[in-house]
Amino acid sequence: MSLVARHVMIWVLMVCVTLSTQTAFAQDTQPRQSSAQAISPAADLRFHADDIEAWLNGSIPLAITQASIAGAVVVVVDRDGIVFQQGYGLSDMAAGRLVSPSETLFRPGSISKLFTWTAVMQQVERGNLNLDTDINTYLDFEVPPYRGQPITLRQIMTHTAGFEESIRYLFTADLMPLDDYVKQSLPARVFAPGTTPAYSNYASALAGYIVERVSGTPFNDHVANNIFAPLDMNNATFAQPLPDALADQMAPGYQNAQTPPRSFEIISAAPAGSLSATGTDMGRFMVAHLNNGLGLLRPETAQMMHDYRAPGIDGLNRMALGFTERWMNGRRGIGHGGDTQGFHSDLTIFPEEGVGLYISLNSTGKGGESFAIRQLLLEGFADRYLPEANPVEIKPGVDAETARAHIEIVSGNYISSRGSFTNFLSFAGLLGQIPVGMTPESKLSFPMFESIGIGAFDWVEVAPFVWQDRYSSQTIAADVVDGRVVRISTDIFSPFMVLTPAPAAKNGAVLLPLLGLAAFVIMLQAILWPTRMVVRRKFGAALALERGHLLVYRSTGLFAWGVVLSIIGWVAFAVMASADVTLLGGALDGLINGLRVVFPFAAVALFLASGIHQVLSFGKGRSWLLHIGRMLLLLSSLLVLWVIFTFNLYGFGLVF
Q1: Are 77 and 356 in contact (CB under 8 A)?
Q2: What's the CA gap between 503 and 415, in Å, rounded?
Q3: Secondary structure of residue 473 in the 3-state scheme
Q4: Which of 119, 279, 400, 568 would bridge with 75, disulfide CB 3.0–4.6 Å?
Q5: pLDDT tens across 128-185, in order?
Q6: How confident is the model at residue 111 (pLDDT cuts 50, 70, 90)?
Q7: In terms of C-beta density within 10 A (0-12 exposed, 13-18 middle, 19 or more buried), how is residue 212 classed?
Q8: Taking a C-beta distance cutoff of 8 angstroms, is the pair 261, 196 a contact?
Q9: CA–CA dist 365, 41 (Å, integer)
């Protein structure tokens, strides 16, 4: 079945309601009736364990099977506790062990941050931290200010501290102590604090380190004593590797249900994502926050976390204090997603309605369908149990001519604020630029959504530079000043990531095709150099060049090979790092440094040699085809040099 067909199938399975159940996939179910006091009257008749069980059992088992996902856990809560929890599929493929919501440990990834933010707010309550104080007040090393502006915990909690991406030690083969991690991995600041959402695992780990310092307790122990213990979360831990008492309960993570299991992932940025927990324990955490932090925080502190709305693009979701905002059917949810290499999870609570949903999958799935399943489950949950009280018809807010003009204004390539900008990984930003355009039907085209597989989209401009999808709750909006786009984003990503137009000199739409052509020209020169040599020897032909010119000619072939082999080396690096991100923790340092020396040296040398060769060849009676070929080689080497120095593919620094 094609990828598109699988996505369509998942959509159907997740939004349809069927009364049939798949009991062979369901384990350890502990349902109870819910009071459902805060949800809408229209949903009261449905929001109970039996209906939730029928709805989920009629969709989840088939969805994870279709997506080749080994297992999943789903938990639904209200303010009184866990309404429904269930495991689906297998926690361990080899052992044939079923998923148990109360016993099987999954890795919820970045949902761990919600525990870190809760710990921060506990220290705020105790007077040990202030959200608006320079974080250097609490550190034993300095985070340099950005153009004189310090960073605060409020900015860290809203992902507006201004850090570029940091991935070197995010996943490692061996655990790095938290204090070593935050000191050795300090990334550059690329945005003014408080101005630009740019997701940062490093900043989240730094917040955990601050909690550790002001509390005088190791971060893992602090969370265990101040969050897990009060909520009776007895099967949850930030510890790595797992304590012996919990190790046997851990589910392996998989690429998909047909691949070998991954080993236990070590996350050195522990406060950002190292949590291991059962579905039951995650449910208890949701219940605490639905009850205004009961057992963890004062009500006013929890409400401060939940109700805060960081600055952002009008019409789109914002960051609360640590929680991401999720408006659905006119109702405000808050939560967080989480991804490791093997686990993919999502947690959302609706504080006003008093309900919440958690899902975790222990496989990425074929084609990455885990994201689609999570998103569609949340939308299906909202549509079924939190229907919009007064649905508003989605209709154009501007005329057709204006709508077309606005699409033309926003069309182009965009760079994500979550990325690397000052190191060699900035080249990934060139490869990953996000296009926005217009369909043949004069509709907005946003292929980024198609790549995450959550269905077809029909974007309608409901207000100037605000587009809403007819088929989902998704919205796209842009800040436009004087007819130029400043930034654009979408509901899913806007709390922690915005897109800015790619400058002309870095625009992948132009640069990547030219770079591909340049690589082809250089590779052709590298191949033709020895080929011509073999042909001349076979036919006894001499190369009619003076000695100095001959040396330059041969140098062009030699340095062309240096560039080609460097490109092959970078491709090999990308393949290895993608297959196992822990290799970035040191195993690939030799390759990285070698490439950042050889590549620029070979490119500079090729540019000089080809330029000298071109000059020496003028007036020598050479054919115009040879002159064109040498000029193309000269221009190709110049373009490669531009890319090397523009995207930092040189140097020795290993903070990335």
Answers
A1: yes
A2: 9
A3: coil
A4: 279
A5: 999 999 999 999 999 999 999 999 999 999 999 999 999 999 899 899 999 999 999 9
A6: very high
A7: buried
A8: no
A9: 37
- Backbone dihedral region of 115: left (phi > 0), alpha (psi from -120 to 50 degrees) or beta? alpha
Is the predicted pLDDT of residue 325 greater than 50, yes or no? Answer: yes
Question: What are the C-alpha distances in Å from 123 to residues 278, 282, 538, 581?
Answer: 26, 22, 81, 33
6 pLDDT higher than 50: no
Cβ-based neighbours of 395, under 8 Å, separated by 6 or more: 460, 462
Residue 624 CB-half CA count within 13 A: 0
Within 269-311, strands assigned E span: 276-277
pTM of the predicted protein model: 0.90
Which token pair is 337?
């997603």
User: Is the confidence at residue 28, as pLDDT, over 50?
Assistant: no
**pLDDT value of position 528:** 87
What secondary structure letter does DSSP report for 163? B
Between CA 270 and CA 181 the distance in angstroms is: 9
CA dihedral 330, 335, 340, 344 (to 10 degrees): -50
Q: Give the separation between CA 605 and CA 599, rounded to whole angstroms.
A: 10
Q: Which residue has the higher pLDDT, 620 or 474?
A: 474
CA angle 229, 235, 239 (to 5 degrees): 85
pLDDT digit string, tens, across residues 485-526: 999 999 999 999 999 999 999 999 999 999 999 999 999 999
Confidence (pLDDT) at 13 = 31
How high is the pLDDT of residue 536?
A: 66
Q: How far apart are CA 466 and CA 489, in angstroms?
A: 10
The owner of tokens 């929001």 is 47
Q: What is the DSSP string of 232-279?
A: T-TTEE--SS--HHHHTTBPPPBSSTTSPBPPPPEESSHHHH--EE-H
Q: If you write DSSP's letter for every residue of 575-635 in order, what string do you get? A: HHHHH-GGGGGTTTHHHHHHHHHHHHHHHHHHHHHHHHHHHHHTTTT--HHHHHHHHHHHH
247-265 per-position pLDDT tens digit: 999 999 999 999 999 999 9
Q: Write phi, then psi, for 479 (nearest 5 degrees).
A: -90, 120
CA atoms within 13 A on the CB side of 28: 21
Helix axes 508-539, 624-646, angle to 10 degrees: 130
d(CA 360, CA 381): 15
Angle in degrees, CA 623, 626, 627, rounded to 5: 90
Q: Is 306 exposed, middle or buried (0-12, 13-18, 19+ CB in 10 A)?
A: buried
Which tokens belong to 66?
């279709």
**Amino acid present at 548:** G
Residue 620 has a pLDDT of 60
What is the DSSP secondary-structure string of 164-214? PP--TTTEESSPPPHHHHHHH--PPB-S-TTT--B--HHHHHHHHHHHHHH
* H or E, element range at 444: strand 444-445
3-state secondary structure of 530: helix
Amino acid 538 reads K
